[in-house]
Design brief:
This is P-loop ATPase. It contains 15 helices and five strands. α2 (28-42) packs across α3 and α2 (28-42) crosses α4. Helices cover 56% and strands 8% of the residues.
Length: 346
């Protein structure tokens, strides 16, 4: 058994934690079960049982950071109120008890917006002469972001959009258009993993711009997509609709992969939409030459060989929608629509 560790945090008073549990009418067993449930909902690593809670309440073991956060959520209290530490100077308790109701109720949304503003005020300090103006602008934007998110939640479901297509097809531009219109987050595979990919290829003794060899396809490409999907999962777990831009060639051809992703997301209340951007070979080559990216050097040097592997007529079997960007038609429409919306937004 670990020795008492009260010296770890000034003001630690384990008796307050026991008093709070007893005030809620919970046994050690019931409290540990409830603590685990709260932790799971919040993504906290807690493996509590009644022995764990007994150790915390008797001062044998000081609760770790995830345990303290879970306790605060379970008892709707602050760390000082639960006896974990002394309060900071001027530390206040944010009263959230009035926040009940539905996001469809404007009054509830307004109360939540007010609480967000108060919470930001409580934890923010101005360290520069222009700090107050910066803080007020940031606060207003965050509150407006909340209002938009609350409205979206009341109208629909978190959405994960996968925009795929061959190199130069216009998938990135179409994904950006969707992001500009919706305000959803955009994750582009090349932007997210490009530097990592180059360093990894070098470490494997390869060309940093290789995107066609067995080394890249077997050792590196899977990691790129794992990073992309992990980042997307971080967003959708928090209810943030997200647009992914990547070729998704092998993934869209694998109906089991897309079905598995769809089922996992559906279990979280998230819709998945797979979009394929179709384009003709001549237009793709024109765009690839224009962007002049080192990763495209092999394609351009072996164009006929590369094009012979593409199916520019048909969509992969797993996609829901196909965007026809032959001769740049879809992106032209998207550009005009985006510019009009920008004028409307001022």
């Amino acid at each position: 058994m670990m020795p008492p560790t009260k010296h770890r945090r000034p003001g630690w008073d384990p008796a307050k934690l026991r008093e709070r549990r007893e005030a809620h009418g919970l046994t050690l067993e019931a409290a540990s079960e409830k603590l685990r449930q709260v932790a799971r909902r919040s993504g906290l690593r807690v493996a509590a049982n009644f022995h764990t809670l007994w150790g915390h309440e008797t001062g044998v073991v000081y609760p770790g950071p995830h345990y303290r956060r879970a306790y605060c959520l379970m008892y709707e209290a602050t760390e000082p109120e639960l006896g974990f530490r002394l309060p900071l100077p001027d530390e206040q308790t944010l009263d959230l008890s009035a926040l009940v109701g539905s996001l469809a109720d404007p009054a509830t949304t307004g109360q939540a917006a007010s609480a967000i503003a108060k919470g930001l005020d409580q934890v923010s300090e101005h360290v520069r002469s222009d700090g107050l103006a910066v803080a007020e602008t940031l606060k207003a934007r965050i509150v407006n972001g909340w209002r938009g998110r609350a409205l979206a939640r009341s109208l629909g479901t978190t959405t994960l959009v996968l925009v795929g297509g061959y190199a130069g097809s216009g998938k990135t531009e179409f994904a950006r258009f969707l992001g500009d219109v919706s305000g959803w987050a955009i994750l582009d595979k090349d932007s997210l993993t490009g530097r990592m990919t180059e360093r990894l290829l070098i470490s494997l003794g390869g060309d940093p711009h290789d995107r066609h060899s067995e080394t890249y396809l077997k050792e590196v490409r899977p990691l790129e997509y794992e990073c992309l999907m992990d980042a997307a999962n971080d967003n959708i777990e928090r209810g943030i609709s997200t647009i992914l831009s990547a070729p998704f060639i092998a993934e869209f051809r694998d109906e089991a992969w897309l079905a598995g992703l769809t089922n996992r997301c559906r279990a979280k209340g998230v819709d998945v939409v797979a979009i394929w951007v179709r384009c003709d070979a001549e237009s793709m080559r024109e765009y690839i030459e224009f962007r002049d990216a080192p990763r495209d050097a092999w394609k351009l040097a072996h164009w006929d060989e590369y094009v012979s592997t593409l199916d520019t007529e048909n969509s992969p079997p797993g996609v829901h929608l196909r965007v026809d960007n032959r001769m740049g038609a879809a992106i032209s429409v998207a550009d005009r629509m985006r510019e009009t919306l920008r004028r409307l937004l001022g």
